[in-house]
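Hi support team,

I'm opening this ticket because the web form for multi-chain structure prediction keeps timing out on my end. I have pasted the exact lines I submitted so you can reproduce it. The total is 226 residues across two entries, so I didn't expect it to be a heavy job. Is there a limit I'm missing, or should I split the entries? Thanks in advance, R.K.
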Amino acid sequence: GNSVTQMEGPVTLSEEAFLTINCTYTATGYPSLFWYVQYPGEGLQLLLKATKADDKGSNKGFEATYRKETTSFHLEKGSVQVSDSAVYFCALTSSNTGKLIFGQGTTLQVKP
Amino acid sequence: SQTIHQWPATLVQPVGSPLSLECTVEGTSNPNLYWYRQAAGRGLQLLFYSVGIGQISSEVPQNLSASRPQDRQFILSSKKLLLSDSGFYLCAWSDPGRLNSPLHFGNGTRLTVT
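Hello R.K., no limit was hit. The queue was backed up. Here is the completed structure from your submission:
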């Protein structure tokens, strides 16, 4: 079945450090891929998405490229800020069911 | 613009008591609706989804049920809560007819069963 695997956290970085959160997936068909962010005590917000192979999603300095050959969608940011501290979820929708399947989430802590 | 409302924000209930969480969406018609649960330290688990009034699909066997009495209303219920029902419950909607459209989440309900 379809699944998403993220690197385990927490990830702790200093402000202005480079961020990578790994995400790999298993899916049949042609899924769309997403990154969601959850700030403390809140629901999830869509951060970025990519709908086909080699697409790059970007938003607020974050980027992720849909790599079909490696079945990956790693999240990157060149310079993190304290305000980026949150839980990040990688997710996919199956092209034949439309349901969103999440990874287990990765907590990012950015220290000043 | 579309908005999603979920309430209450927090809830503390004793074991064996009933539960009703409500979610409503405004600004769209016939949305796909979802209930997710996020247990402490764990990822998100899809509990129920609905593509129309009265159409509910259950993803996992559990102590909970869902209903969609109106187009933009989605209710999560239980007759008798268990300790294991504690968690953060999130309602979400997506555009109808677009299988790969993103989900839009409410702010969640933190349920503590004591």
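A quick check on our side: The first strand of chain B starts at residue 3 and ends at 7. Let us know if the file doesn't open in your viewer.
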